[in-house]
Design goal:
Catalyzes the oxidation of 5,10-methylenetetrahydrofolate to 5,10-methenyltetrahydrofolate and then the hydrolysis of 5,10-methenyltetrahydrofolate to 10-formyltetrahydrofolate. By secondary structure, this protein is of the alpha/beta class. It contains 10 helices and 11 strands. α1 packs parallel to α10 and α6 crosses α10. The longest helix is centred in the N-terminal third of the chain and has 23 residues. The structure holds guanine.
Length: 288
């Protein structure tokens, strides 16, 4: 069996187009332009790349992008003061504080200082609680993008067995909640799970978000399973160059899975598209 390739880039392009149409409609009919504020503390190279591309996409769909780059030694009180200023600013509809934060900053305190209605990452404890209780919430962007692709490729998800590998607040836990809300039977596994291949072998859907390169082996999969690979890992090649790989051994998995996301070009592009969709939704909730 050769898996269908789930083209996240093409998916994201369609979603971005729809976001751009919404933005243009808001401008023309209401004179409103949604705004997204992104806060980066420190110089983490990967975060700098993510923040730059978030800013670019925001402008491309016609929204206002506000970027705040703060030094690594920023005091917690200074960061909290900026968040309060953004909470009160009516031109800012979405606030994203790029994670990870430098060690001296309390991540939970900072995230929970964001107005939940502007929490386009869906990380605030109120949004996490709403999602966990099956209520309308701002949903974290990566799991939301994964769910959209799963719905497209699997149709109705009810009754399917999903194994989510990874238990982070950003991906694993909200992904499991979303799949439960779709009436999947959900197993949350992680790097310490015993007999992981046995769990994976029973899964109709595998979402790998464990952050370890090529961790999930092709032979673990059930024939025809749908595989969503959230991992983005840079590995050294024998010739001194580096290569981006996911958490799944793609080359082996593609001969067994029914459908699979590539890395790069799978989940990644959907995350930003969902962030912008969340920002438009946040803007509409304020105004309508
Ligand atoms: N760091 C890695 N992924 C994310 C994300 O989705 N949002 C934020 N704020 N930080 C991240």
């Amino acid at each position: 069996m050769t898996a269908r390739i789930i083209d996240g880039k093409a998916f994201a392009a369609v979603l971005l187009e729809s976001v751009a149409e919404h933005v243009s409609h808001l401008k023309q009919t209401q004179g409103i332009t949604p705004g997204l504020a992104v806060v980066l503390v420190g110089e983490d190279p990967a975060s700098q790349v993510y923040v730059r591309s978030k800013g670019q996409r925001t402008v491309e769909v016609g929204m206002h992008s506000y970027e705040y780059r703060l030094p690594a030694d920023t005091l917690e009180a200074e960061l909290l003061a900026l968040i309060e200023q953004l909470n009160l600013d009516p031109s800012v509809n979405g606030i994203l504080v790029q994670l990870p934060l430098p060690q001296h900053l309390d991540e939970a305190l900072v995230i929970n200082a964001i107005d939940p209605s502007k929490d386009v990452d869906g990380f605030h404890i109120s949004n996490a609680g709403l999602l966990a209780t099956g209520q309308r919430a701002m949903v974290p962007c990566t799991p939301l993008g994964c769910l959209m692709m799963l719905r497209e490729y699997c149709g109705n998800l009810a009754g399917l067995h999903a194994v989510v590998i990874g238990r982070s607040n950003i991906v694993g836990k909200p992904m499991a909640q979303l799949l439960l809300n779709e009436s999947c039977t959900v197993t949350v596994a992680h790097s310490r799970t015993r007999n992981l291949p046995d769990f994976v072998n029973g899964a109709d859907i595998v979402v790998a978000a464990v952050g370890r390169p090529l961790f999930v082996k092709g032979e673990w999969l059930k024939t025809g399973a749908t595989v969503i690979d959230v991992g983005i890992n840079r590995i050294e090649q024998g010739d001194g160059t580096t290569r981006l790989v996911g958490d799944v051994d793609y080359d082996a998995a593609k001969d067994i899975a029914g459908a699979i996301t590539p890395v790069p070009g799978g989940v990644g592009p959907m995350t930003i598209a969902c962030l912008l969709a969340n920002t438009v939704a946040a803007c509409c909730r304020v105004h309508f």
